[in-house]
Amino acid sequence: MTRRVFFNAVLLSSSLFGxxxxxxxxxxxVTNTTTLNxxxxxxxxxxNEPWLSASKQKQIAAKAQSIAAGTLPDPVLSxxxxxxxxxxxxxxxxxxxxxxxDISQKFSRGNSLAxxxxxxxxxxxxxPWLRAQRKAQVKATVMELWLNAYRAQQSIVLxxxxxxxxxxxxxxxxxxxxxxxxxxxxxxxxxxxxxxxRLEDKLIVLAQQLDAAKQGLAQWLPMHWLQRPLSNEFKxxxxxxxxxxxxxxxxxxxxxxxxxxxxIEQNVTAKVTQINLAKQSxxxxxxxxxxxxxxxxxxxxxxxxxxxxxxxxxxLPLFTDNRQDQQVKAAIANAEATKTEKRVALQNLKGxxxxxxxxxxxxxxxxxxxxxxxxxxxxxxxQATLNAYTRDDGDFSDVMRARISELTAKIDALNIQxxxxxxxxxxxxxxxxxxxxxxxxxxxxxxxx
Length: 449
Fold this sequence. Notes:
Elements: H1 2-20, H2 38-47, H3 50-69, E1 76-82, E2 98-106, H4 112-124, H5 126-179, H6 186-216, H7 223-226, H8 248-256, H9 259-279, E3 286-294, E4 307-314, H10 324-390, H11 396-430, H12 436-439
Antiparallel strand pairs: 1-2, 2-3, 3-4
Helix pairs in contact: 1-5, 1-10, 2-5, 3-4, 3-5, 4-9, 5-6, 5-9, 5-11, 6-11, 9-10, 10-11
């Protein structure tokens, strides 16, 4: 009699439990209509990233600086009294006394003005690529945080459903033990209570992980958004390219087009131009000046002619060892260092991509193993132990272990699928040049994820 009650309770719980989990990990229903979905989260983060606004302001500032750098220095105007006698301070006492107005203008060395403007303009070209790289980075990070939160939320749902099963198991075993019917032992009751306590602990850990993932999103999302439960329906990150069939040469071309690499390449171009700018220091700098001197009439009433002076100044860069030569040498070294920085960045991208790609291949193998073999076997094992126990041919501890193993397998399967989505999101970062939502920054357009 007690076994039959137990059997019915377990079958009811098992049917509810099985309805929770779906191989796509999207079958749990959240009753709250206002949920936080992946698409809205990514779009909000991309459209409200403060770093992008700061980058745009830096670009505007640099553009203004380039205009200033291509402009000649202002002419210098001076007004003064010249050769004023100190024994009477009379303006008409001496012939040399005059009120003099001077204006002078300096010109740049060689083509240095145009090259200075060109350097800044080339550096300005980095900013759109840096913003595109930042968007790709934010997109991958936000997706990972959201998916980790989703992982914790779905695991909580699975465990809560299993917790109901274990609660019913405890009630059945206690009833069987109290009535002294069947083979229920005191250790069966203790085991059930222990497993229930362990599930409580797992729920606390998962709640902590859910909070941590959500708080990680606080960098981009308003706080009232973080109070929402996560949506169970989400647009999975689709690969921007078939990574499994991506040849090595195609990978290098893909990485060379990455916004981070193109931004460094723009800096390399500016550094090369700075070499030509440094070489302009070998050329002389010209200056012109013109002065007009006004003289008063003599004390006797005779007129004095005003004086006009015109001059040209040229500096002679004759001693170049300690200044011009060193400036050129420094510019060349900076250019080479930036080229090396580009190679290092490319190597880092390649290494990180290959690491993520190797994990994708393995996790796809694990996902196929769980979906095609392990989960069906776990379900069969749980059902077989339950059937044996209801026929008085099995042990209660076997039923518990089978149910625990099935729960663990389902959570592992969920983790595998989430890990796969995260890896794809990371791999898409390396293919950012193919992402319209990222590359739209170069055209100033806005796309939705």
